[in-house]
Specification:
Structural class: alpha/beta
Largest sheet: 7 strands, mixed
Number of strands: 7
Strand content: 15-25%
Order of helices and strands: HHHEHEHEHEHEHHEHE
Length: 288
């Protein structure tokens, strides 16, 4: 499939924010085919489908930042594995998209894993993976996270059903405004058993760069990039979260020889608030 697909420039590329999940799955498929993969995702190619390949190969710069998507996936894998090893009995993946971790990661059979996303993407995913078996107790919830009362009800219910919860938001927050992120952060912090929260974050400089490039086409499809807080991970402190581990994607990609040579001059990454520096990273947040 990777070699044989022929891309048609006239086909629609990104039709909405859910289509970006197909784009991410495409990069997981590419990494899986490497002789030295950082992770194996044998489901990614099917999940991406032909449209995922079309997005990557027709969207401006659609293939340019493979290293960042791969580094992000790897870092989320690491942080999730650590949280589970430390006793998390429930994973909540908000805007789970076409993530296949419940199928591909080494997980306890007793672990409960909740995927939350729009009904259409959950339906698509269930159809593609109908004959596959998850390695843990997987459940899916159809929910628009902008429906604040509904998400609060879901969080409260899940809080009552678990002992230690880790929440993952991979590729979600950048599509929210600062006020929307603060609201979600507050709702998560209100739950006593929601102990860890894993997010990816862009600096203001990186946000502006993304908005000028691929972001233009994504914005036209209703998937505009919005969130890149000037105070970096400190943004979440007001809602009761503290960053206990922050890993830059470029640094991670360079460590595993995935970073483009022309970007290595940006290393080492600055300490403190990244400001105009084009930084992206994955952050492990814990309750204060």
């Amino acid at each position: 499939m990777l070699q044989s697909l022929i891309m048609n420039e006239q086909n629609l590329t990104v039709r909405g924010v859910s289509d970006t999940a197909r784009w991410v799955a495409y990069f997981r498929a590419l990494e899986t085919r490497r002789p030295d993969p950082l992770f194996l995702d044998p489901y990614a190619e099917r999940l991406a489908g032909e449209h995922g390949f079309q997005i990557a190969n027709t969207l401006a710069d659609g293939n340019k930042h493979e290293w960042a998507w791969v580094a992000r996936t790897y870092l989320f894998d690491q942080f999730l594995s650590r949280a589970i090893q430390e006793g998390a009995d429930l994973v909540i993946n908000l805007a789970a998209g076409l993530d296949a971790r419940p199928y591909r990661m080494n997980l306890p059979a007793t672990l409960r894993w909740i995927e939350v996303d729009f009904p259409e993407i959950i339906s698509y995913k269930e159809n593609v993976l109908a004959d596959d078996k998850a390695r843990c107790r997987l459940e899916r919830v159809s929910l628009d996270l902008s429906d604040v009362p509904a998400r609060r009800n879901l969080f409260a219910r899940l809080n009552a059903e678990a002992k230690k919860v880790v929440v993952a938001c991979e590729g979600l927050l950048i599509y929210f405004t600062s006020d929307e992120v603060a609201s979600l952060s507050t709702d998560l912090a209100a739950q006593s058993r929601f102990q860890c929260w894993i997010v990816d974050l862009a600096s203001p400089g990186q946000l502006r760069l993304m908005q000028r490039t691929t972001g233009k086409q994504l914005s036209e499809a209703g998937a505009a990039f919005k969130f890149g807080p000037p105070d970096g991970v400190n943004f979440f402190a007001a809602q009761g979260w503290v960053a206990t581990d922050v890993q830059g994607m470029l640094k991670t990609a360079a460590q595993f020889k995935r970073a483009p040579a022309e970007l290595l001059s940006l290393l080492p990454e600055p300490k403190g608030k990244p400001g105009n520096y084009p930084w992206t990273g994955v952050c492990l947040l814990k309750k204060r």
